[in-house]
Amino acid sequence: GVEGIMPQFQCLPTRADFEPLSGLVDYVALGPVHKPYEIDNWLFNPGSTETWGAEESAWDRGYYAVQVETNVAPGESKQRAEHITNPRRPFVRFSFRVDGLSDPDSFYDHFERLVRQQARENAATLSRKPVVDVALIGVFAFDAGAIERTRLEEMVKEQFHPLIARIGLAPRWQWRQ
């Protein structure tokens, strides 16, 4: 990888670290960072062919098909790299605000309505069983231990028929959604 592409990855080489290879190497294949990117039509990272974590669900998936032509004029690019996006499992991610819900019955009612709405909004894009990831955001007005996670997962399963349903508390830094 290259520094700055993925903020959580530290101590990666910088773009300047690759500069000594300029003029000597026509194509640099990077990895294993899952996010696809290319820099200066020279440094290429395809990402991964499948989504490994919910936070990666918005990134294109795929690989590069590269053709190298050695008989080109000086200064012309010797390679043509095309990022091929491959089919992958769909992800549906949404958040559910718990603020202002005074009891478990109100919580379940609002949660079920949101799940139905999300299922309707995403129905056209779901060609395969999705992974559904729901983040509970906010502050509970009642004991959160009273919530049955399996009941929430069943509501999601009834509407989405997913490969897996994940319900979790979102960290405070995600509450801005």
Largest sheet: 3 strands, mixed
Whole-angstrom Rg = 22 Å
Poorly predicted ranges: none
Category from helices, strands and their pairing: alpha/beta
Shape: elongated
Q: Approximately what portion of the residues adopt beta-strand conformation?
A: 15-25%
Count of helical stretches:
3
Please give the alpha-carbon distance between the first and last residues.
29 Å
Mean pLDDT over the residues: 89
Q: Write down how many β-strands occur, each being a DSSP E stretch of 2 or more residues.
A: 8
**Widest sheet: strand ordering:** 1-3-2
Series of H and E elements: HEEEEEEHEHE
Percent of residues in helices comes to 10-25%
Write a short abstract of this structure.
With 177 residues, the protein is α/β, with parallel strands linked by helices.
Written overview of the protein:
The structure is a single chain. The protein has 177 residues and is of the alpha/beta class. Helix content is 20%, strand content 24%. It contains three helices and eight strands; from the N terminus they run H-E-E-E-E-E-E-H-E-H-E. The strands form three sheets. The protein has a three-stranded mixed beta sheet, with no helix packed on it. It has a three-stranded parallel beta sheet with strand order 6-7-8, with helices on one face. Strands 4-5 form a two-stranded antiparallel ribbon.
Secondary-structure blueprint of this entry?
Blueprint: H1 15-18, E1 28-29, E2 37-39, E3 43-45, E4 62-68, E5 79-85, E6 91-97, H2 104-122, E7 131-137, H3 149-160, E8 164-169
Parallel strand pairs: 1-3, 6-7, 7-8
Antiparallel strand pairs: 2-3, 4-5
Helix pairs in contact: 2-3
